[in-house]
Design goal:
Number of strands: 2
CATH class: Mainly Alpha
Distance between the termini: 25 Å
Number of domains: 1
Order of helices and strands: HHHHHHHHEE
CATH topology: Globin-like
Strand order of the largest sheet: 1-2
Length: 164
């Protein structure tokens, strides 16, 4: 099965998404204040590394890292759902402008939305199993390979079959 990164094309495609995404973040009056004193090239490189790992299916420690790396923004600058929602809108716009299929955009957006709790520190992060199960299900549906429906168990780490 192809990874998200495989379906995006190559590292150059990912770089284009990241560049456009941060351009939109800086143009957005809601998200711009979080980048006032930021070293954008460093942030873009960290984003590149993170997305390469996520889009290749390597998720060990990602949620914990996201929670730790954004804690100061939540604590000191009031990062909250409203800002995250604007960020998701900017990411979706960047993906669409780069010409990716609606199915791939939806899969990436689902994966990204599932990171909100980690980024905002809404709960203790134990794993990203649910995120991976959902991403796999969407990927299978997009490729017409889904023969069973799987959903994440929000209270634990084990996936469970949906009642359908």
């Amino acid at each position: 099965m192809l990874t998200i990164l495989d379906r995006l094309g190559d590292q150059e495609s990912l770089d284009k998404i990241i560049d456009l995404f941060y351009q939109k973040q800086l143009e957005d009056p809601v998200t711009r204040p979080f980048f006032t004193n930021a070293k954008l090239p460093r942030i873009q490189q960290m984003q590149r590394s993170l997305l390469t790992m996520l889009f290749c299916g390597q998720t060990t420690g990602v949620a914990f890292y996201l929670q730790e790396s954004h804690a100061h923004l939540v604590r000191d600058h009031g990062l909250k759902h409203e800002h995250f929602a604007h960020t998701m809108t900017n990411l979706e716009a960047a993906l669409k402008e780069c010409g990716h299929t609606p199915a791939l955009v939806a899969e990436i957006m689902m994966l990204a939305w599932n990171l909100e709790d980690a980024i905002l520190g809404n709960r203790k992060i134990r794993s990203m199993q649910g995120t991976l199960v959902d991403a796999l299900r969407l990927q299978q549906e997009a490729l017409g390979e889904a023969d069973t429906v799987v959903k994440a168990n929000p209270e634990g780490d084990k996936p469970e079959k949906a009642d359908e």
